[in-house]
Structure formats: structure tokens, C-alpha cells
Amino acid sequence: MKSISRRALSLYLIIILFLAGCGLLFYNLVSNSSDWAMNRVNQHLYSSGNLATAGDITDINGNILASTKNGKRIYSDSKNVRLATLHTVGDSAGFIASGIQTSFKDELTGYTLVDGVYNLKRYGKGNDVKLTLNSDVCAVAYKALGNRKGTVGVMNYKTGELICIVSTPTYDIKNKPEDINTNTTDKYEGIYMNRFFSGLYTPGSTFKVITGACAIENIPDIYSRTFNCEGKILIGEGYVICNGTHGEIDFETAMNKSCNCAFAKIADELGSEKLTLTAERLGFNTKKMTVSDKITCAKSKLDLSKSKPLDIGWAGIGQYTTLVNPCQMLTIISAIANGGIANNPYIVSEITNPEGNVDFTEKTSEMGELFTPSVAQSLNNILRSNVKNGYGDWRFPDLNMCGKTGTAEISDDEDAKPNALFVGYSQNEDTPFAIIVVVENTTSAIQSAVPIATAVMKEVNRQY
């Protein structure tokens, strides 16, 4: 009897192990089947390690950005468009990880868990992916950046649609440079990185928008305060240096003139806890933001845990160790334009199967309230004042533009050139677009970033 019981127990154990093995096999099949199907040895999809067979990628107007012809991926007929959209479209070898050809390869090849790539064999192509991108706006942004490193992003703040993403340096995917992986200069530094999604930058004075929001929320008399700027201010054990000598100014004028003395004093009064709480509510130090549920952005950072008063002063003007991701900063500025509500940014408009049926259409989705309506309106008024009283409405004709510049020091080396930034948006109902411009190692923002924003927003106004 005992022998029968032991045999039954052994049989039960074998059955349990068998079922556990089946469960593990099924889990691996579900989890890894896409990777197995997309392996670069799969000759149905790849040729010499390069994606060869997939659906079309088009911009919002139906212009071809990538397609398959005679077993090879081909790209836009326009060299400027190819250069401008490289990092968004991506390459067929997968070096540009955030590119559509890599992040949406399942969709482009028509892969499903049930059918695998059967439809690809059946129809000779995968699904077509239409982007929210406007290739004409991208081409203007690329031309405006010229040979400088940086990024430009434009988003519809009412919907979250990204209509422009440009990252430089870039290269012509139709004629890839032979020395791109061997050149020892900085010519191709970060060539495969989309700076808009993956970049992190010292924000400079663009961060004063966040410090300003924290001040409006936590200092009741901020609008009746005055600040005396003598070109520098003692904060704790050292000085914060200003970009000018502004005399006695109020809060709005301090933003108009981007006064370091005023905002360093405000940051010192707010303290590390309040500044950090405001920044984290806007997405700093929290989970990484994703675009179209596929593309992960770098995480913006503000660490004041070991800061001294002088450090907090510098952080309040966008220096110290503060780092911001361009896509996230664009989302923050878009929330101000949208009455405090941030929409999730997205890049894929719709996906169409080989039979011509639309399988997927992206819809606007709210990220949440980043600012109360009253704080958003206050910031909106100040940012509008910046353009009217500082940068000049003539730079942005017919756009009712709001904005803030930033010139960020990135090194203690006196010969090092700063990064220049501009964030802003149009108040017009028919052109609800926000923009961010980052130019690396350049002159002041007003000399470099603002002219790029001007060129791009003029094209946006022309197109829409």
C-alpha cells in the first residue's frame, strides 16, 4: 500500500513538473516570440542584418518617409527630408533604437502572436504606419539648425501630436558615411541618439518657468515683491552672478529680463523641498515618460538632497546639477498653454493593414493637471510678456507667441561655449503649437535658439 502511495506521489510530482514546464514554455513563447520572429537571421524580414520587408512609413500628409521596393528599404526623395527625419524614422539596421523602424517593427512587419509574419508572406508587405510628423516643418527645422548639434521639437498642445522632431548631427540614410563608426573626432558624436527623446540638458533660464510656478504657488505676495539686482547676489556662502545689472524690479520684469539675482533669491526662500516637490509633480525624478507607448524618454533630474543655499540658488536659475529632457520640457510648456492640462505626446497617427483597413488610430489622452488653471494663466501672462517686452513680436508674426530663453553654462572652462534653449508656444486657436529648441555649444539663446524657433514657427503658421 505504501509502495502504491509513493508511486502516486511521484506521478503527481511528475504531472506538476510537466505542467510547470508547459507554463514556462508558454510564458517564454508569449514573452519572447516577437524577438524570435524579429531575429535578424529571419530572411523573410532581413537581408544582411537590415530590415528589408515592411510596410510604409508616411508623414501626416501621406508623404513617403520609408518604404520597401525590390526587397530593400527606400526613403524620401528629398535629401533634406531624409536628413531631418532620420532619427524619427530610424535606420533599417536598428542602430537608432528609438526610430520607428525599430520601436514599431512588429507593427511594420504585421507580426502578431497568433499569425507570426504570415500576413507579410501573404501580402508581400506589412502594415503601413502614418506618423503625426509634418516632414516640411522638419525640413525647415533641420535647415535652421544647420551644422550645429541640437534638437527641435514641436507639439500640438491641444492633442499631443508631435509634428516636428529633428536631432543633429544626422546623416543621409541613402548615402551613409563610410567613416561614421570609425571617425575619432566629435563630428558624429551621438549620431545614433535622438536628442529629443534621449537627450538630457542643463535647462538654464528655461527652468525659471518652473521656479516661477513654485513661487506663485508658495509665496502669496510674489507679485508685490521687488528685487534689487546689482549684478550679483550673495546666497549662503557664495555669489550668484547675473546676466546684467537690473536695479529694482518686480517679479514679471525679473522674468522678462531673466534676472538671476531675483530668481536665485526666490529659490533660496522656497528651499529645496518646495522646489523639488514642484519639479517632481512636473515629471522630474519620476518614472520615464513614454511616447506612443513605445519610445522611452530620458528622465529629467533635480537632486537637491545634499544642496547648500548657494546650490539651491543656482538650481533655481537652471544650473547646478539640474538636467531636463527636451520632450518632457516641451510637455511642461504645453501644459501651461493648455490651461494646466498636459496631454501625452504621441508620434503614430494610425496603422493600416495590407487590406487597407485601419487597425489603430491614436487618440488624445490626458497626462493630468500639471498646473492649476490660475497658475497656468499667470505663467501664460508672464511668458507672453517675455515676447512682447523682450524678444519681440516681430520675430513671430501673427502667432501671439509666449516663450522663455535659456543660456546654460555646461563647464567651468572659460573657453567652453554654452548651450542655448528656447521654449514657447502660440496662443492662437488655429495654431496651438508649442516648440522647444536646443542648440549645443553656441552663443546666447537670443542669437541662436530664438532665430531657429522663428523660422520653424513661421513654417508652422504657413502650414496650418
Put the structure in a nutshell:
The chain has helices at residues 2-37, 79-89, 100-103, 105-109, 118-123, 135-145, 195-198, 208-218, 251-256, 260-281, 309-316, 326-337, 373-391, 445-463, and strands at 46-47, 50-51, 57-58, 64-69, 72-75, 128-131, 150-156, 162-168, 226-229, 232-235, 238-241, 247-250, 290-291, 295-296, 341-343, 348-352, 358-361, 366-369, 401-408, 419-426, 433-439. It has 464 residues and is an alpha+beta fold.
What structural keywords apply?
single chain; 464 residues; alpha+beta; six-stranded mixed β-sheet; five-stranded antiparallel β-sheet; 14 helices; 20% strand
Give a structural overview.
The protein is α+β, with helices and mostly antiparallel strands. It is built from 14 helices and 21 strands. The chain has helices at residues 2-37, 79-89, 100-103, 105-109, 118-123, 135-145, 195-198, 208-218, 251-256, 260-281, 309-316, 326-337, 373-391, 445-463; strands at 46-47, 50-51, 57-58, 64-69, 72-75, 128-131, 150-156, 162-168, 226-229, 232-235, 238-241, 247-250, 290-291, 295-296, 341-343, 348-352, 358-361, 366-369, 401-408, 419-426, 433-439. It has a six-stranded mixed sheet with strand order 5-4-3-6-16-17. Residues 29-34 have low confidence and may be disordered.
